[in-house]
Amino acid sequence: MTRSPIVARSLSSLHRARAELCKRNATLALVPTMGALHDGHVSLVRLAKKRAKRVAVSIFVNPTQFAAHEDLGSYPRTWKDDIARLTDEGVDLVWNPDVTTMYPDGFATRIAPEGPALAGLEDKFRPHFFGGVATVVAKLFTQVRPDMAFFGEKDFQQLKVVTRMARDLDLGVKVIGGAIIRERDGLAMSSRNVYLSPDQRRTAPVLFRTLKETSKRMRGGDDFRAALADGAKVIREAGFALDYLEARHAENLAPIASFSEGPVRLLVAAKIGTTRLIDNIKA
Any idea which residues are catalytic in this one (predicted)? Predict the structure, then answer.
């Protein structure tokens, strides 16, 4: 019979569980999540299990990365299903703090990341976001004290921000990215996909198809600006409100205009109905 993970909800219980699990210097990996787990999260857990003796998953819907108009209140919460999935995967520990544990009365310290956090992508449309992400991830790292942490590449800018922060602040955590897990039709798995109506769900894979077609044109020698402009037109004509379709340097997220300027990542963000979707591919 598969053993359920230890569930810690206070710092004292977390520290006791960690001490017990990491006897004899067992390595510990952390997969930070906001719950509503899908196969993309599971893929990160499986990567973590290959790299570390023990695996912890955090489940915390972080209010500081949501703006007032965003979906904090309606963000999907599926605790029983999440624990069942994590039990099946053999996770050792679930860290499930409440808001007052993470942000007690008088909390007054926040991280203001720069570098990839100011690339003009997600930060342009969600200026609050990466400060909230950096602060909560730094807290998770200092609370759980993992040797390594796994983040999905779907949130590519976030991955770069967290990697830079862990390095700059000497947090002693190796940040590792996991490949995007997709539905059969190419749509990147996301907890927010449940918001899509049937018609919107049928349209949503246009983003991935456009990324692939844009990459193909660029690799075939087409001008980057023309390929991006045509891709943007396709996305808008499909019914999306496009925030960005960009070609960026894959490491520092700087704008680039040719393959000679470095490894290329194509990134897109667009809203269909009330649901905002993001995706990216290596060009």
Answer: 41 (proton donor)
